[in-house]
Design brief:
Elements: E1 10-13, E2 17-23, E3 27-33, E4 45-46, E5 58-62, E6 68-73, E7 83-89, E8 102-106, E9 112-117, E10 126-135, E11 138-148, H1 151-158, E12 222-227, E13 230-234, E14 240-248, E15 254-259, E16 265-272, E17 278-285, E18 291-296, E19 300-307, E20 312-313, E21 319-322, E22 325-329, E23 334-340, E24 345-352, E25 370-373, E26 376-382, E27 387-394, E28 397-403, H2 407-412
Parallel strand pairs: 20-22
Antiparallel strand pairs: 1-11, 2-6, 2-8, 3-4, 3-7, 5-6, 7-10, 8-9, 10-11, 12-19, 13-18, 14-17, 14-19, 15-16, 15-18, 21-28, 22-27, 23-26, 23-28, 24-25, 24-27
C-alpha cells in the first residue's frame, strides 16, 4: 500500500518532469482542462489511441504488471491549462473489482513524491483518480477519487469533451414529384437534384469487370424479369452471400421472403409500401439448391443477382442512395456516417470478414448496429476491412460517407461496447 494522501487531501509537488504510475490493469487517460474546468478540444484528451499531447508535456505509455505510466512535464504545460486530471476506467466490471487501484508520483530522481490509493471504489466504471493543479505559482497533487457510475461518457460531459459522433452535412435537396408509371421503362441516369428515388427504372446492367476484392465465388450477373407476384429462381449459383437488386413499378405493397428447402417463407427481406420500390438485398445462396425468393408485387419488376464484389464502396466521398443496400468497407478502421431522411425503420448492421474463412456463409453480425425510426443522423464504427455494411431497412433517401473518428469519440467507445 502506498503511504500517500487520503481522499480529498493535497500536497505540493516539484514543478518538474514527474512520472505517475497508475495501477492495476485499468485504462488510463489524462484530461488537460482550463480554469473553466473544461478541455479545449479533442487534443486535450490523452489516451492510448492518442498517447501524447501536442505540447509534448503529457504522455502515456504502458508498463508491466498492469501499470500505466503518465509523464507530466509541469514546466511545459501550457499557461491556459490549470489542471491535469488522471482518469481511470474499466471496460469490464466495476472499479471496486480492481485490487490496488492507485496512483503514485515520482520526482525526476525516481523517488516517490506522493500518491493515493482508492480503497472505497464502488460500482463506478470511470473515476478521476487524482489531479495535478496550479497553486501559488507552483503545482499541487490532489487525491480526488471521484467516480462516475455512468462511465466515461458522464465524466467526459462534465469536463466539456464533445461526445457527439455525427458530423454536419449539407441540407436536404428539394423533393421532386414521382411520376406515375405502368410499365418498366429503359434505364435512365439519376437526377442529381432529386431527393427521392429516380422515376422507376430497372436495374442498369452490370458490365463485366475484374473485381479488386472478392469474398466467395465471382460470377456473371443473372437477370430475371416478370410482373406481379412470383417466385424468383436463380439456378447454378455458387453457395454463399450475394446481392439481389430489385426494382418494382408499384403504387402498392412490395415484400420479399427467402424460401427454405420446403418452399416455406423464412426470412422477410423487404416489407415496403414505397412508390416504385428499389433496393439491394443481402442474400445467402444455399448449398446444393437454387436461390429462391418469394416476391409480392403489383406491377412489373426486374431483379439482378450480383456477386458480393459488386457492393458499393464506402469512401470519404458522400454516397447518395435510396432504399436497402449492401456496402463494402475495405480500408482501415473508421466511422461510416449516415444521414437518413425517410420516415420508417432505418436498420444497419455489419459483418466483419477479415477472420471469416467460410465463403459459403456470413459471420455473425457485429455489434454495435443501428436500429432507429424516422429521420436520423447516425454513425457506425467499423473495424479494419473488409467489412460488409448492410442497410436492411431504409425506405427513404440516405447519404453515407467514411470519416475518421475523433480522439474523444475513440476514447469513449470503450464505454459504449
Amino acid at each position: 500500500m502506498i503511504r500517500g494522501l487520503a481522499k480529498g487531501d493535497n500536497a505540493f509537488v516539484p514543478t518538474a518532469a514527474l512520472r505517475l504510475a497508475v495501477r492495476n490493469g485499468v485504462d488510463v487517460a489524462a484530461l488537460l482542462v482550463t480554469e473553466q474546468g473544461r478541455v479545449r478540444g479533442d487534443a486535450d484528451v490523452v489516451f492510448d489511441g492518442a498517447p501524447a499531447h501536442p505540447s509534448g508535456a503529457v504522455r502515456l505509455s504502458a508498463g508491466e504488471d498492469g501499470t500505466v505510466w503518465l509523464d507530466a512535464d509541469l514546466t511545459g504545460v501550457e499557461e491556459a491549462v490549470t489542471r491535469v486530471l488522471v482518469v481511470a476506467s474499466t471496460e469490464d466490471g466495476a472499479l471496486r473489482d480492481v485490487r490496488g487501484l492507485s496512483v503514485e508520483a515520482f520526482g525526476p530522481d525516481g523517488t516517490t513524491v506522493t500518491g493515493y490509493e482508492a480503497t472505497d471504489a464502488g460500482g463506478e466504471t470511470a473515476m478521476v483518480l487524482a489531479e495535478l493543479y496550479r497553486r501559488a505559482g507552483g503545482w499541487k497533487f490532489r487525491a480526488v477519487g471521484q467516480g462516475y457510475v455512468d462511465g466515461l461518457e458522464g465524466l467526459a460531459v462534465d469536463y466539456g469533451v464533445d461526445v457527439a459522433e455525427g458530423a454536419p452535412e449539407a441540407p436536404p435537396r428539394p423533393p421532386e414529384a414521382l411520376p406515375e408509371t405502368s410499365k418498366v421503362p429503359a434505364p435512365r441516369a439519376p437526377d442529381p437534384t432529386a431527393q427521392g428515388p429516380a422515376p422507376f427504372a430497372a436495374p442498369a446492367p452490370v458490365p463485366a469487370f475484374v473485381p479488386d476484392w472478392t469474398f466467395g465465388a465471382f460470377f456473371e450477373p443473372r437477370t430475371l424479369n416478370g410482373t406481379g407476384n412470383d417466385v424468383l429462381v436463380a439456378e447454378d449459383l455458387p453457395p454463399g452471400p450475394v446481392i439481389v437488386e430489385i426494382a418494382v413499378a408499384t403504387d402498392g405493397h412490395t415484400a420479399v421472403w427467402t424460401l427454405d428447402r420446403n418452399n416455406k417463407e423464412k426470412d422477410l427481406l423487404v416489407n415496403s409500401t414505397e412508390h416504385n420500390f428499389r433496393g439491394r438485398l443481402l442474400v445467402v445462396v444455399p448449398e446444393n439448391r437454387p436461390l429462391r425468393l418469394n416476391l409480392t408485387a403489383d406491377g412489373p419488376w426486374q431483379a439482378q443477382v450480383l456477386p458480393l464484389a459488386a457492393a458499393r464502396r464506402l469512401t470519404e466521398d458522400t454516397l447518395e442512395c435510396w432504399g436497402p443496400d449492401v456496402l463494402l468497407h475495405t480500408g482501415a478502421a473508421a466511422d461510416v456516417a449516415f444521414h437518413y431522411r425517410g420516415n420508417s425503420n432505418f436498420i444497419v448492421d455489419s459483418y466483419e470478414l477479415a477472420d471469416h474463412d467460410d465463403p459459403t456463409t456470413l459471420p455473425r453480425a457485429r455489434y454495435p448496429y443501428i436500429n432507429e425510426i424516422g429521420r436520423r443522423r447516425e454513425a457506425l464504427p467499423l473495424p479494419d476491412g473488409p467489412v460488409i455494411v448492410h442497410l436492411g431497412r431504409a425506405d427513404g433517401p440516405w447519404r453515407a460517407r467514411l470519416k475518421q473518428p475523433s480522439a474523444a469519440v475513440s476514447w469513449l467507445r470503450r464505454a459504449r461496447r
